[in-house]
Amino acid sequence: QTQAKYQILVSDSMSKEGLLPLLESDQVICIEKNVNELDDLSQFDALLVRSATTVTDELLAKMPNVKIVARAGVGVDNIDLDAATKRGVVVVNAPDGNTISTAEHTFAMMMSLLRNIPQAYASIKAGEWNRKAFQGFELRGKTLGIVGFGRIGTQLAQRAKAFEMSLLVFDPFLTKSRAEKVGVTTATLDEVLTGSDIITVHTPLTKETKGLLGMKNIAKTKPGTFLINCARGGIIDEQALKHFLANGHIAGAALDVFEEEPATDKELLAFPNVIGTPHIAASTKEAQLNVAAQVSEEVLRFLEGEPASNS
Ligand code: MLT
């Protein structure tokens, strides 16, 4: 019988099918338990997380054998990257496993927002039949402003085109030639802000993007603009959003992510034209299988001495 070479801790719930490369490898002992449920973490060579586990310097200190932390998802904002670097721990993610799910969810949120579907649903479930209260807008002919044009922004743009929307795309890293290839017009942030009917953000949360849609920038949008955030809480400043919802400048917002999660801002959620979901854009069978499989394979390869490809 082969002796397992590596011990791997899967701290957040992940697709079992996606974890099969680890669960079936005789090289690996794979424990699916939250870091808080174990007293001794010193034996683990690798740590797999989604977003529920916060990987702090303190946690890494308890895991002196960990060589790699893998995030089964895109955002690594729940991992202290400086602490990992300091300790020589490699951090990898699953950069494209949930692209389609997130783009589709954003699209669903956009349609729900413009057609008042959640509000109409709540009304009919409450026994009402109110056909006047829920008049909405068509997407055709509207301008969708996309801030951040990576994988998700690109997929969203393709879907928006099928709905005959116009697109304005801002991304400081987007080259003219790539924009041409995808068939979108590059714009400045100000052009997106002033020229869009609906603005959706698809950037990571960084120093540069935190509060990007705040008082100053939301003020530049057209009266009646809709805002969508299915990326990271905090890219749209919630205080500023509430200000512009309260004065009617912003027509509505669709939020899958919040500055604090679980979402606690009752005032924000109480706006009838704010619709929300609990950070589920990547929660599909397909995406969860993809991201778990991607990180499982990546971790195995890395432990076997190959360089990490998504670090
Ligand atoms: C991601 O960063 O991949 C998404 O937010 C999904 C998740 O948190 O699992």
Explain what the structure shows.
This protein has 311 residues and is of the alpha/beta class. It has 2 domains: 6-97 and 285-303, Rossmann fold, CATH 3.40.50; 99-276, Rossmann fold (3-Layer(aba) Sandwich), CATH 3.40.50. The protein is 34% helix and 16% strand. The chain has 12 helices and 11 strands. The protein has a 6-stranded parallel β-sheet, with helices on both faces. A 5-stranded parallel β-sheet has the order 2-1-3-4-5. Helix 4 (99-115) packs across helix 6. It is elongated. The two termini are 33 Å apart. The model has no long low-confidence stretch (mean pLDDT 96). Bound molecules: D-malate (MLT). Its EC number is 1.1.1.95. It is an enzyme of class 1 (oxidoreductase). It catalyses: (2R)-3-phosphoglycerate + NAD(+) = 3-phosphooxypyruvate + NADH + H(+); (R)-2-hydroxyglutarate + NAD(+) = 2-oxoglutarate + NADH + H(+). Keywords: Amino-acid biosynthesis, NAD, Oxidoreductase, Serine biosynthesis. GO terms for molecular function: phosphoglycerate dehydrogenase activity.
